[in-house]
Design goal:
α3 links the parallel β4 and β5. With 292 residues, this protein is α/β, with parallel strands linked by helices. Strands 1-2-3-6-4-5 form a six-stranded mixed beta sheet, with helices on both faces. It contains 13 helices and six strands. The longest helix has 15 residues.
Length: 292
């Protein structure tokens, strides 16, 4: 990634920050068709700098964006959307509906998670039937463990490459709900910028608030679907607990990613360097682009 001299990259970053229309816009939260769309900016780093708003957005899937949402995305100047969904998930939920000219980059993340092969596509089946027995509450922290355990190194490294190029901004990245794969990606970006872990955790848990109006009806819908499946009372109770655990985030979910990175590389910074190939020069370049 160090193909451009640091002095030149510093100059380019300075010009980019000075000229970017979106860089100082007020952070946005929620679209009509995706309540978990939100600006990742606004967080303060340990050295007192602040992540610029209007440049990086995290989100859930975007196939149900309204016409008003498209206008919002146009006003934000979104240029690039990074999609972590698999082909099977997109087939089930629909392709993103984006303004004309937006570049969409597919970086599907799936694999053996918590001992479940092709877990992302298996979850599609669970959402169709309401049968979450294969995804008990302990599955959720394991998602984050496996994402930084090698499962998504290539995809997250590519995300950082995309973020290193100012021509791609503003950038949106998303998965289905904007929680597990997107939440881990957001945690990595914020950590790379020097945002303290307490703020990283709070950002992850904000999805409980932004998705509150849709989550309870969805849990009820899945429980209703599950009544069509023959289960013992004990299994039905476990299934209900699994559904709730999947849709209601807990701090230990995202904390598991930090613990896994520490086990693998000593800390999250070590994961950024050795797992994702981010040198100190790369990270400093990213900070020049995104911090003020």
């Amino acid at each position: 990634m160090n193909t451009i001299g640091l002095s030149f990259r510093t100059l380019v970053a300075a010009v980019f920050v000075a000229s970017s229309v979106a860089a100082d816009t007020v952070g946005i939260e929620g679209l009509e068709g995706q309540p978990n769309f939100r600006d990742l900016g606004g967080y303060q780093t340990v050295d007192g700098r602040t992540m610029r708003t209007g440049l990086v957005f995290r989100s859930g899937e975007l196939p149900r964006t309204t016409d008003a949402d498209l206008e919002t995305l146009k006003k934000l100047g979104v240029r690039t959307v990074v999609n972590f969904l698999t082909e099977g998930e997109i087939e089930y939920r629909g392709a993103d509906r984006l303004p004309k000219g937006v570049r969409e980059i597919s970086l599907p993340i799936t694999g053996d998670i918590g001992g479940i092969p092709d877990a992302a596509n298996m979850l599609v089946d669970a959402r169709k039937t309401g049968d979450f027995r294969r995804f008990p509450p302990e599955f959720n922290p394991l998602v984050h463990v496996d994402l930084v355990g090698g499962l998504a190194d290539e995809q997250y490294a590519t995300l950082f490459e995309i973020l290193s190029d100012e021509a791609n901004y503003p950038v949106v990245f998303h998965c289905s709900h904007g929680v597990h794969r997107t939440g881990t990606a957001a945690a990595l970006v914020l950590t790379a910028l020097g945002v303290p872990w307490s703020s990283v955790r709070n950002d992850y848990l904000r999805s409980n608030d932004t998705r509150a109006e849709e989550v309870e009806p969805r849990i009820e819908q899945l429980q209703l679907l599950a009544t069509e499946i023959d289960m013992t009372p004990e299994d039905r109770e476990k299934n209900t607990a699994a559904i709730r655990a999947f849709y209601k985030l807990e701090p230990e979910y995202i904390d598991a990613s930090r613990t896994a990175a520490e086990k693998r590389f000593g800390n999250l910074e070590g994961y950024l360097e050795n797992g994702l190939g981010q040198s100190q020069g790369d990270l400093e370049h990213l900070r020049k682009l995104l911090l003020k």
